[in-house]
Amino acid sequence: MMLANLRHSNIVWFIGACRNPMVWCIVTEYAKGGSVHQFLTKRQNKSVPRQRRR
Predict the structure, then answer these.
(1) Where does the record place the Serine-threonine/tyrosine-protein kinase catalytic domain (predicted)?
(2) Which residues pair with 11 in a beta bridge?
């Protein structure tokens, strides 16, 4: 699995995945600061500062 071998400081670590007939679950490391959805909603479609992207 390609994601399992990916290591980068800006990408959460992929731990595993599972599914049943109706639901897929992806397990990653904990990333403090809230969800990606919350972050993007607060930004209101503004560009993410370069320092924050690295």
Answers:
(1) 2-47
(2) 8
